[in-house]
Amino acid sequence: MVRSGIAAEAPLQMAQRLLLRRFLASVVSRKPSHSRWAPLASRALQTPQLSLSNLTGTPSQARSLYTTQVCTTTFNIQDGPDFQDRVVNSETPVVVDFHAQWCGPCKILGPRLEKVVAKQHGKVVMAKVDIDDHTDLAIEYEVSAVPTVLAIKNGDVVDKFVGIKDEDQLEAFLKKLIG
Known about the structure:
Layout: H1 11-27, E1 38-41, E2 48-50, E3 57-59, E4 64-67, E5 74-76, H2 80-88, E6 94-99, H3 104-118, E7 125-130, H4 135-140, E8 148-153, E9 156-162, H5 167-178
Parallel strand pairs: 5-7, 6-7
Antiparallel strand pairs: 1-4, 2-3, 6-8, 8-9
């Protein structure tokens, strides 16, 4: 026997749709917080309106998603070939932050280093390598403690430090790399 209407929808599908709506409601905003944000309208973010008579979906009014400007100075390394491509073969000098999720000093140094790198306006970029995910890279670059930061220029390690540094020391480290 085939039922018509919403009652025919399986409880699991209803729960999934409800979770999706709650998620979208939490990330989708109709009003921007800051004028520098750019709206992204997407048909994928439209909420379907169900008709009880034939259960066909029709999109409702489009919603806008506001995002901040994409950070291009810092990136996470995905694997060995990604490291080779984005760090070793980079024409721009690269600061490589070897860190771990469980490392307290890494959590302090990471944002501080990102801030100093961002001030350089593209003269240097920062690659983040989680040593637990990329043990092979940590071994290859002789990382024995975290945080370890390498300065790589034209594929060669030109400088290195282990531990926390203050912003002035980090700026001096970057100026030496940029040269």
